[in-house]
Design a protein that fits this description.
The complex is a heterodimer.
Chain A: H1 2-15, E1 19-24, H2 27-33, E2 37-40, H3 55-67, E3 76-79
Chain B: H1 9-17, E1 41-46, E2 50-51, E3 69-73, E4 82-83, H2 93-97, H3 105-114, E5 119-120, E6 123-127, H4 135-151, E7 156-160
Parallel strand pairs in B: 1-5, 1-6, 1-7
Antiparallel strand pairs in B: 2-4, 3-6
Classes of the chains: A alpha/beta, B alpha/beta.
Chain lengths: 82, 162
């Protein structure tokens, strides 16, 4: 449900005129709900930025997500490739 | 990578039967980032059920889910945040060890000091994601947060689930 809540929040914020990007841990949910910009991250539930105490990995995930903010061909669902 | 197959049977059956398609976003909105990220004001939104030590817990007893939110000040000491999510669908050991895993404020502070982003907003927002019946979220609390972000002149929002 967390995935759905993020997608729905994202749509409401984007409709208010603020650009958004989210991390998605379940490809199936993002594919169906279609948030504007999502990075599908190949991590277990509870680990959206990869691993605790791994600032390097967390920064790589964040950078990949922030890069999607430059695109407007919504809905965008990209996969984090490391 | 996480797919339905990685989830417990109980969660999987629930999710397979859950009408996600009912909540499909249509049309998909698109707000453009009108300035470079390095000049943009950024806010974080998480559904990890985090709150500050002084705030009340989310209400885990509401069957359809607690659609309320907590405002997290940008000055918060991240490791003081309390996780009170009701979901049994995820392993919370990671975020209890390092809250940046789901609410990467320390990482964004680093990006702010490096100039990758312009400025962090003075507040961020936390929801408890297990909202099975999202009507109140969509009609009330989400628009409220969207309005606050808009009033704060936030340019970009980064959202994380657990």
């Amino acid at each position: 449900m967390c995935q759905q809540t993020v997608c729905l929040l994202q749509a409401v914020v984007e409709r208010a005129g603020v650009a958004t990007v989210s991390i998605s841990l379940l490809r199936e949910v993002a594919q169906v709900i279609k948030p504007p910009r999502a990075l599908f991250a190949p991590f277990p539930m509870g680990y959206p930025l990869g691993a605790p105490d791994d600032a390097g990995l967390q920064h790589r995930v964040i950078a990949a997500a922030l890069a999607l903010l430059e695109r407007n061909d919504v809905p965008i669902l990209e996969e984090f490739k490391g | 990578m996480a797919t339905y197959d990685d989830l417990s049977l109980h969660v999987r059956l629930f999710m397979k039967g859950y009408p996600f398609a009912h909540y499909a976003i249509d049309p998909v909105p698109c707000a453009r980032l009108t300035k470079p990220l390095g000049a943009s004001r950024v806010a974080l939104v998480t559904t990890a059920g985090l709150r500050t030590p002084g705030q009340g817990d989310f209400d885990r007893s509401i069957k359809m889910g607690d659609a309320s939110f907590r405002e997290i000040p940008n000055t918060i000491e991240t490791q003081s945040l309390v996780e009170s999510h009701r979901s049994y669908a995820f392993d919370r050991a990671g975020i209890r060890r390092d809250v940046n895993l789901a609410f990467p404020l320390d990482r964004f502070r680093e990006l702010e000091s490096q100039g990758v982003i312009g400025k962090l907003n003075h507040r961020h927002f936390s929801f408890m994601g297990s909202i099975v019946g999202p009507r109140k979220l969509v009609e009330s609390s989400a628009p409220q947060v969207a309005r606050m972000l808009s009033e704060d002149k936030v340019d970009a929002v980064f959202l994380t689930p657990v």
